[in-house]
Amino acid sequence: MTGMKILLSFDTEEFDVPKEHGVDFTLEQGMEVSREGTRRILDVLKQNGVKATFFCTGNFARLAPEVMQRIMDEGHEVACHGVDHWQPKETDFVESKQIVEQVTGLKVNGYRQPRMFPVVESEIKRAGYLYNSSLNPAFIPGRYMHLTAPRTPFMKDGVLQIPASVTPLLRFPLFWLSLHNLPEGLYHWLVRRTLKHDGHFVTYFHPWEFYDLKEHPEFKMPFIIKNHSGCQMVQRLDNLIKMLKKQGSTFITYTDFVNCQ
Q1: Residues 191, 201 contacting (CB under 8 angstroms)
Q2: How far is Cα 111 from Cα 202, in angstroms, rounded to an integer?
Q3: 134 within 8 A of 113, measured Cβ to Cβ
Q4: Which of 63-77, 120-134, 234-248 has the lowest mean pLDDT?
Q5: 159: helix, strand or coil
Q6: Which of 92, 214, 226, 247 is the most buried (most CB within 10 A)?
Q7: φ/ψ (deg, to 5) at 13
Q8: CA-to-CA distance for 187 and 185, rounded, in angstroms?
């Protein structure tokens, strides 16, 4: 493959952010939000004719088989994102792979840890994954402090590490929160600069961002998460994809990226 490559991904998990803010929130409530958000994402991808990778929790795979089937039917990749997003465990690498492969009937090649927490790469390799995308090499106080980690893909313990994209100099993160809160023109400019520098762009979003969070004050969502959520985020994703296609970029799955290294 030649040209600039876009690795677009979605952490397809049960919505649990309200629990971080003291809200009593059930698994089924979280699944309802994430099912709807994933359908909206799939609509945008289908309209634009692009492929993405969906990192799915075991909970989501088990409880939304019809959405999982649509993801596969429309040509996207399915990867693993732990079992229960709220309570990650050391056994998740193996267990999530078993669950997702059983639901999909496909071999799963990739893993991303919930909340981008660190993983033991040797365990990822032992579980049979080809790549790990659990690193955001940004400087975000209190969340990600990875100023010395590589910005671009690298091998570790026999597994290709695929970090989320950050800007070359200041390591400004270009993940979901940035598209929510920056002016779209500025975000697009930063993405184009990074894409030109690296030759590829790796980013991730969540289904619940595409749900109308502002209509649910009982969720107690912070402004930076609610900002431009729902239909506005659907439009922002659509605009981002169209901008990248106009640049001549190719949207590929993470496994496609691994195979062309």
Answers
A1: yes
A2: 14
A3: yes
A4: 120-134
A5: strand
A6: 92
A7: -130, 165
A8: 6
